[in-house]
Amino acid sequence: MNNAMAGSDDDERIRLQQAQKLEAIGTLAGGIARDFNNILAHIAGHLELARAEAELDGAMAFHLGEIDKAQQRATDLVKRLLMFSNRQAPQRKVLPLTPVIDEALLLLQSALPPNIRVRTQYADHLPPVAVDALQVSQAILNLGTNAAHAMRAQGGDLTVSVQATTVTADALPAPGLQPGPHLHIAVRDTGSGMPPEVVARVFEPFFTTKGAEGTGLGLPMVHGILRDHDGAITLESEPGVGTTFHIYLPAIVQATAAAPAQGNDDLVLGHGQHVMYVDDEEGLIFLMKRMLSRLKYRCTAFSDPHEALEAFRAAPDSFDGVLTDLAMPGMTGVQLVEAIRAIRPEVRVAVVTGYDQDDLTALDEAGISIRLNKPTPPPELGRALQAMFQD
Ligand code: ADP
Ligand code: MG
């Protein structure tokens, strides 16, 4: 198999150069993406108006529909760019890794064709890691999505294994790691594999072999997440045989025998209030639902703001509060809140902002004061919901 990285000084220099290049491209892309995001919001807004206002004949409706599709793809791309360039510092917590992986795989599996099987092989008694669970599950999801794509023609097996390993200075399994205890996660597929010239470029931003279907931002994001976690990623691949990505994360070895409390001690809990959550990203809906139920709220989620609005209109008193994403295709979070308030003015609302550059003025003008960062760690979410339901 072609090993993507070895450990010589030359490789180290190339690795540093690559990291700097990534950094620079990230900054540049982020700036452009932010401006572009505003332009797209403008297009989406007027598109919505045009569709509502015109008594459309078939041809006009078709063209507007196509513009809408293109606009949504562009919005999605810009979102990925922003996530990649503006990734927040990880909110790390000491926790067991395998439930995070399971959660990501569960999410992945729901979208997989039946000819792709997912298996896990976890060693017993694994030490915990200090990670941002949302970011790590995003990384696993990205690797899984790529693996599924590589296997979609023939089917195959996706195997995720985790074992403990000790990294020593004279035998670094991947450059950039510090010696010490680590978890080694291997994500293996039996898909198409890659020739060496592809292997060499997979972490490059915008490098994709999928044409219009790809963005080339999945692996750069995974790479960034691991770097932020003091971990590393390498790969081996053989055309026609498959690919294995190896991830290393520092493990936490407890000084005392007592395991850290994994309870809900540090969380402010609700008491079954019914929260409507609206976000066009299915993956975040999945995670938010889990978090809300852990925080003892009931949640009904929508990926389409129009559907959310209809559900609210149908039963305005059944929801105690509304939590919404800001940037969504078709209708912004602020527009949704305004429409919902027109139905029931006193309803409790909060918004989840994906990046600090979201339109804060619009939020001020709409009087929406409770804002959560995305991704929201459970303690922060708990406090924000408490503030939202406070009298
Ligand atoms: P995208 O998936 O949008 O193309 P990524 O950064 O996720 O962007 O991946 C970059 C490229 O790496 C892919 O286009 C593909 O050629 C290659 N690749 C990544 N993972 C795999 C895999 N598991 N098997 C085969 N090729 C892969
Ligand atoms: Mg990808």
Fold and architecture overview:
- This protein has 391 residues and is α/β, with parallel strands linked by helices.
- The chain folds into 3 domains: 2-84; 97-250, Heat Shock Protein 90, CATH 3.30.565; 274-389, Response regulator (Rossmann fold).
- Helices cover 44% and strands 20% of the residues.
- It has 11 helices and 13 strands.
- It has helices at 9-53, 58-85, 98-109, 133-151, 196-199, 218-228, 282-294, 305-314, 333-343, 360-365, 378-389; strands at residues 2-3, 93-95, 116-122, 129-131, 156-167, 180-189, 232-238, 242-250, 274-278, 298-302, 321-325, 348-353, 371-373.
- The strands form 3 sheets. A 6-stranded mixed beta sheet has the order 1-7-8-6-5-3, covered by helices on one side.
- Helix 10 (360-365) links the parallel strand 12 and strand 13 (371-373).
- The chain starts with a strand and ends with a helix.
- Bound molecules: adenosine-5'-diphosphate and magnesium ion.
Largest sheet: 6 strands, mixed
Q: Helical element count? A: 11
Series of H and E elements: EHHEHEEHEEHHEEEHEHEHEHEH
pLDDT averaged over residues: 84
Helix content: 40-55%
Instruction: Catalogue the unreliable spans.
Output: 1-7, 255-263
Name the strands of the widest sheet in spatial order: 1-7-8-6-5-3
